[in-house]
Amino acid sequence: MKSQDRFAFQSTLDRMTHQTKSVRCAVKLLLALGLCGCSFTDDDTQPQTVFAARAFDHVLPLQEVCDRIPDNASTSDSTLMAQRYVDQWIREQVLVQQAETHLPLDLQTFEREIRAYRNALLLHHYKERYVQQRLEQEVPDEDALAYYQAHKDLFVLTDYAVRATFVHVPLDAKQDIPFIETALMDDDSLTSFPLQQWCVEHGAVHSLNPEAWWYLEDLVQEVPIALYRTENQLASRKLIQFEDDERIYFLRFHEHALIDGVAPFEVVQDRVEELILHGKKQELLLQLEEELLIQAWQQGSVEKLLVDSTR
Question: What kind and span of H or E run contains 9?
Fold first, then answer.
């Protein structure tokens, strides 16, 4: 940043003691930016707002820069974030100046758009806060299951879903293959401590919960099995074993669901709960709107001023 585009930071901390964050931020920026070749000027005859930059007829208050910097940021991080923000502010002001200079005045009036944008922001934040304060975020399992059963057409699979367990280990673990094979095919051993402990001690990547559902696309990212007769392979309950240049893979399918079929409830439970909460949210907000409208009409806060010319 050029020195002529920066305003004074020196002798300003006493003017910012109204906020602890401002003081901490100012200390960091004064110490850090002051070592970056800033030009310092100050008029001690009267109090003044401290600025971080100037562009044409506009100035950037140091407080605005401080507000953008987290309390726990280090001096070096504070400096970097401040410099980036100031540089971006200057860039924006230069572009705005260019636009204001060359655009006709009738194209520079945005009051309607600004008002609509402000209203949208206000409504969004108010509604979000209103819902958070009143809507219970936990959905009972029985409610989720009832919704799922009543709307199964919403949960058609676009990928295979499988319940599967797997283990894969480095090639040097070949001596333990019999133990792994036996444990993976024994339902009682899958969740037992010896197999889990062995996986941890030998750096084995594993998923041993036979109730866990996977989309096949996600499972293949963990176990790169070659699929050539997919439905037949998924239907097999035999232990699948293969290896590549680095690892040995063991995979067992416990259950599967086909593309275009209804997804098992466990696969889509999170989505079901999201849909339920979304519906409750919309219902809550619609009720709020209706209540506020009724209240406004009853209190005479609103009225229609247009005359019906058809009467």
Answer: none
